[in-house]
Amino acid sequence: MPLGIWARRLALVFLLTFAVVVLPVPVTSGAARVPVSSSFIAAIGWASGTLQVELLNGRIYEYYGVPRSVYSAFLSAPSKGKYFNAHVRGHYRYRRIR
Known about the structure:
- The chain is an alpha+beta fold.
- The protein has three helices and five strands; from the N terminus they run αββββααβ.
- It has a domain at 29-96.
- Residues 19-27 have low confidence and may be disordered.
């Protein structure tokens, strides 16, 4: 394969990798996340029934159909990770957005 084609393919791979790893994923719910004190969770937010959970590793998940009362209890829970595991994870439909 000529060097020019190889260089173009390598540049395309680099750009696609950059787009996937570096560029932020748009927040679909409009939930403004609030930083929390936790060894597992960085921030949480809620808007119109959608709960966003940002983990310390940078991943962000959206959980759908979450009542505001669950979000409020999550914010005030002494252990965010324990509350998340007991009351959110496995209880609501979700998707990873980043």
